[in-house]
């Protein structure tokens, strides 16, 4: 993996991040599982250090919801207000679970992933948000950074009775051996080698940003464990969902719609961002020029990405503790993915770069 490691070292030299974890699995074997640099000043980053995945953790909550669908406790066409009556206020009564998972609900904010408050207070704020003017759920698309993901977590709590942090620990992480992963981490288990992101980043500032479950952004764990979680989905081994429901999650559920947040056309499955370079490149938070069109995954704000490419039998997961700005990050993300595919000899007909 010479080119890949060169790219990582280049990022360290350019001070794009203090440290980086990376996990690459290809055709049944792990080909890279390493850590480079520092978790925080004076503390070396190791493959076992826990890192903040940001939005790369969103699919964890999506799988939790789909487990309830598989169990017959939810239906994708169920209106959210049927489960959370107070959600119906301010024009949101027609929004369904399907709309939440495909970012077509139309109540994006203002709200961010690290807004202060208890779980109940944040959910109340999400319920009070207004339907955006002129937005018909399902007919317009725009990535919801935070709001819909708190609501999905609350749906899990009301249907299953377990809080979202407990649910994912027991039913989404544990079945595949991801036992050191969390959405909302108890203060008692925080370690000195848990990586910090940026010194002034809200996710580092107060313990509440670590401990209150925040399904949009505060999943934490060694990136290797997120990678192995994707391996389980790729292999459809039934530990998380049966094969039919995995196929449904990674199928193009939202196709050819302009995304009002990303300002480009992006396709989505149920909670997963799908390879969308068919609509032209550069593609924000994409999986690189060689990824197949069946690739599914999710990235985190200027710091992380995890995806599975079924056609190439490939899983990639990486996380940095540095946020260098959107432009530099997009260049970094594409360069890392390009190098991985080149190192593995996967540079065939999947290159859809426009010149």
Report the CATH architecture: 3-Layer(aba) Sandwich
Summarize the helix and strand pattern as letters: HEEEEHHHHHHEHHEHHEEEEEEH
Distance between the termini: 26 Å
Radius of gyration computed on alpha carbons: 19 Å
Helicity range: 25-40%
CATH fold topology: Beta-lactamase
What is the C-level CATH assignment? Alpha Beta
Unreliable residue runs = 350-355
- Tally of strands: 12
Instruction: Tell me the CATH superfamily.
Output: DD-peptidase/beta-lactamase superfamily
Mean model confidence by pLDDT? 94
Biggest sheet architecture:
7 strands, antiparallel
Strand order of the largest sheet: 3-2-1-12-11-10-9
User: How many domains make up the 3D coordinates?
Assistant: 1
User: What class would the helix/strand composition place it in?
Assistant: alpha+beta
Instruction: Figure out the total of helices.
Output: 12
